[in-house]
Design a protein that fits this description.
- The protein is mainly alpha-helical.
- The protein has one domain.
- The chain is built from four helices and no strands.
- It has helices at about 5-35, 45-70, 80-85, 85-95.
- α1 (about 5-35) crosses α2.
- The chain is extended and about 55 Å long.
- The mean pLDDT is about 75.
């Protein structure tokens, strides 16, 4: 096998890894943020405000994932669970 054939294999492996990574992101957090939080319908136009909201959504998803590990929470219950989340409940999960 020539070194060129090895390079093509390495390039394909890298490409497959990158595609797999982004597929997991799109089907994971981004899907959750859009379906549960309606992020694609958001009308927030200011870039800083949009980043803050994305960060808050990610925080809630992270807290929810912790709750799933600790109890019987399911993905289908995320919209209801997030409406009931208060600042004091969030702090208990974080600490």
């Amino acid at each position: 096998m020539s070194s060129l054939g090895h390079q093509e294999t390495s390039d394909q492996a890298l490409l497959d890894a990158v595609r797999g990574h982004w597929s997991a992101i799109e089907n994971g957090v981004h899907h959750t943020r859009d379906v549960s939080f309606g992020e694609d319908r958001s009308r927030i136009a200011h870039p800083t405000a949009a980043r803050v909201m994305a960060t808050l959504r990610n925080l809630v998803i992270g807290i929810y994932n912790l709750e799933q590990e600790r109890s019987d929470a399911t993905a289908a219950s995320l919209p209801t669970w997030q409406r009931q989340l208060t600042a004091s409940k969030a702090m208990r999960f974080i600490l």
